[in-house]
Amino acid sequence: MRSGHSAGGRTPVRRWCDHAPGSARSHARRRAEARPTVEGMTTSLRTALVCAVPLLLAAVGLLHPHHLTEGTADLWTWIHIGLLPVFPLLTVGLLLPVWGRPGRDASGPAVVLVWICSFVYAVFYTALDTIAGIATGALVRAVEGDHEPLVRPLYGIGNELGYVGTYALLLGVLALGAALYLRHGPHTLYGSAVLLASAVSFLDSHIYWPRGGITMLGFAAGFALLVWAVDRRSRVPAAQDPGSAARA
Questions:
Q1: Which of 88, 98, 137, 238 has the fewest beta carbons under 10 Å from its own?
Q2: How much is the average pLDDT of 201-216?
Q3: Structural contact between residues 176 and 196, judged by C-beta atoms closer than 8 angstroms
């Protein structure tokens, strides 16, 4: 009889137990297969995810008033309200290329630093957007006459908090570049260089065009280059594995 027996007449009990519908290993295997992973995404999808936010910010920057006045206060306020959930998502481009548990190699501490810097940026840049964006806009809308003495302190504290966020983002970009270089080699340096230049420009450019908008386009380009470099290097071992063809 064929079913359930090996050539020697013995039932492969261990293998059958591993795949039994009620076994713990079977449940764990099904959970792992059902869990969505970044590695399972296509390069195009990963590129779209990391580029979506900077491209959106660049587009919104075309509408962003360069100065806050009584005539621009409404647009100023609503733009910053709408961008509250958007600016923190700029960190998707930092986190996606190093998604997963940090390794025990030299890249591990760099990955953890990317996480920390992404969190600090998200918190403090949101504070800038809230204070120097929403609060100042609402104040100008509500107060008639000379509002400069009232908004100046808000700009001051908002910018100080914003600098904490942008310098954290800059440090995160450096940490990302180090982690990807250690994991994937010099092919990642091109994207890291573009990303570093964009992070330096972002220190005091916000999304005002032309410089701020170009900075956001630079983030999109840098993120895309890193995704392509990482995916390219990840495909090389499988293509060079001499046993892959035999296993197929």
A1: 238
A2: 96
A3: no
